[in-house]
Amino acid sequence: MSGALQDRVVIVTGATKGIGRETARLLAREGAKVACTGRNRDDGAAVVAEIAAEGGTAIFIPHDIAREADWREVVRRTETELGGVYGVVNNAGAFFVKPLAETTEADFQDIYDINVQGAFLGVKLGFEAIARTGSPGAIVMVSSLMGQVGFPGATAYCATKGAVTGLTKTAALEGATMTPKVRVNSLHPGVIWTPMITGQFGDDQALQDAFAADTPLKIIGLPRYMADAILFLLGDDSAHVTGIELTVDGGRGAD
Amino acid sequence: MQDTATPVRLAAISGGDPALREAVALRLAAEGFALADDLTAAAALDALIILAEAKAQSFAGTSTADFSAHMGGQLKAAFVALQSGVAAIRAKGGGGAVVVLAPPAGANRSFDGLQQGLRLLAKSAALELGAEGIRVNVILPGAGGGPLGEGPAPVDVAASVAFAVSERSHFMTGADVVVDDGRMAA
User: For residue A99, what are the domain limits?
Assistant: First the structure.
């Protein structure tokens, strides 16, 4: 059986947990060869094992996305071990909740390094890698609903995700002038129950229920819903889609 | 692989020019949907696709009667289809999906307000119907080309419709799916 991304090589950052992990698994089920990157080697090995157990192809590459040298090594190993790069999912991100008055310069710099500089390097190096294949490609930037609207206590996070929204649009316009062309779109998840959220708010059922009640669809967001949206933005069904903000948030942002 | 026990999903298409209607119908059929012949006669539905139509006409060349006929006619047709389709989705039970295609004219834009009217109709419906598991999303096709290419063909618009009515967009409601070769990004 041929999948939607059969034999195409995709790099997924932050693939050790949450949205990245589910995305890596779904892309592999759709035939992609996936380079899973992240900071935790044990979690990385676990994802690769999960994918292998489902009959897919994946490797793990240790990766601090804020470092260009790391990015170059990720691309080099991906090209050597899996082949030319079709797509990049710039998913890895950091999140914290702290009132503006208490957010320090160091806090801001840390989240900027990951969410903005990491995303910037992901597009830049992604463009270079895709261009080497001589074939079109696609890049998905995982921004946030908080890259479109504000959220009290998340000034730094919202600022960085807003930056990703703008970065995506410009990258899309430049990608459209490349030969062959590269599409770039941003995904804007609402509240998705991942370690990023539970790490800040705690992993308790009452809170999950409260988030669900506060969402028009009355359900909590799950990583696999984001994986489905990322697959759409990477695949041929979105061949004429570039520079868009795809909000998948259970309806929160529509209010 | 299709499970033989899987009940057939029913969809209805309202409006649209013949080429787009056909492309959407073919894609939905490929996704395993059966199509209702007549929306108003459909007793039960899983999905409703409302294909509003754009019209290019200059402000100077548009009479009040023209404005009312197209703007009012299209918006009202979408509203009526939404009401009747949602009733059929409720009758079926278990939630469902509505997609509203809101096209721009591109030039001679006296009717382009229609696009925003349709968007907000869909978003309002999304908020009202979310608790019932009925999702409502908007497809915004480009008028003409954009930085990426010559603009989407009916088959490309149909691919986005298919995503918006499928389980692959399970958590998406009140959202815009722009299919415009990057035109709106610039």
Answer: 9-190+222-248
